[in-house]
Amino acid sequence: MNNNYNFDGRLQHSSGQENCPSANRPVKAPSQRAWRTLCLVTLGLLTFGGLAVPSAKSATYQFTLSWTNTDSNVDLNMIDRSLDGVNFTPLTTVASAPASYQDNGLVDGSAYYYRVRSHSVVGGNSDYSNMTVGTTPPLLVITSPADYQAVTNATVIINGTALGANGLQSLTVNGQAAVINGTNWSASVTVSDGTNTLTVVATDNSSDHNSTTQIIHAVYYPVPVASFTGTPTAGTAPLTVNFTDTSTGTINNRTWTFGDGATSTAVNPAHTYAAAGTYSVNLSVTGPSGSGQLNRASYITVTNVVVDVTPPVLAIASPVDYQLFASANFTVSGTASDASGVLQVTVNGQLATLNGNNWSLGITLALETNTLTVVATDSSANRNSTTQIVHAIYYPVPVASFTGTPTTGAAPLPVNFTDASTGTISSRTWTFGDGATSTAANPAHTYAAAGTYSVNL
After folding, report:
1. What are the residue ranges of helices labelled H in 63-135?
2. What is the pLDDT of residues 156-181, one digit of tens each?
3. pTM, whole model, 2 decimals?
4. Which of 122, 215, 238, 430 has the highest CB neighbour count under 10 A?
5. In this predicted structure, what is the pLDDT of residue 400?
6. What is the C-alpha separation between 114 and 132, in angstroms, rounded?
7. Is residue 453 part of a domain?
8. What's the Rg (C-alpha) of the chain?
9. Among 260, 280, 303, residue at a domain's last position
């Protein structure tokens, strides 16, 4: 980009100053010891180069100063430079020809002021030329986001600064206009998961522009949402609870607080509550995109162990004392109940079958006296026992049998019957088939009429 600047050449000597109206102004001889004119009729053309690399950090600008000496006796030219137009410092000294100088390595967003004067061994120094100024394009920086920054959605706010010596006219990010606030700017752009190229272009009020490009590798990390469960959530001390992290999102770290002063950073910790109480559990999770927290108030309830000292309630329902038995094999049965649960029941040392509060066991009874000792034990190791004396009376089942003599003959025929039955018999009844009966043990019966008769005992 080229800019033209006019320098008004002035002449200086100890005896005074004089404008130099033309290149043909006469020059006095050195022997006259008066003054020698070194005319800088024009110090006019100022040019500067463009942006070498599209990045503020590696930008290289240059201003090329050129002027015209109207006196052929100029030996050298002295150039001064200032950053504020007031405080000048010597920049360099150049030969009389060519009348130009290139100032390199200039900084973005700055103004540079220059003035030139000529020097002759014979005539001394000329007056300074008129001051000229050149400005570099805006100093442009992207401050955020950083590369590989975690994003939670596709829209990202791009921030930065732009410092221009001539102020800012406009700024765009990937072609979208940014919001300018002084030297700060911001723009909302859409990025994709992966590689994104951000190109920022700033233009100052002199229509000078600068651009910078930044590669952003956007990585999408969902925001963590804390969630968890615990099993069991109630019980007696000491109570061990297994916690499961059911959080969502991308999580790098987690912290559990169990409400009793203990903490953990495990994913799915197990924690034992030693004392009775009600405990609130908190889970905090953090990830590249943020953090989340869930607090479950009064989540765990721990009670003290209730010591059971009450033995089971025990009873024998069957058999009863002096019960009659047709066989020595008999099933003893009864009930047993307890608040903490009946663990087992034994009868004379043999394990009975439990069905709820009922128990039973098949045993062999002896004739006459039997001692039944039943012991019930609950889940707290409390025991209760009961003993029952059973006088077993064994009565074999009656089996009817008889004989009769004679079984044939002429009427009237008397027959003598004999009861040959086995078992314990309390009563008997005979029917002789002709309508007659008897309850005698061994009856005699006479059949009066001829016929065939069935006999029943």
Report:
1. none
2. 888 888 887 777 888 898 888 989 88
3. 0.40
4. 430
5. 92
6. 5
7. no
8. 62
9. 303
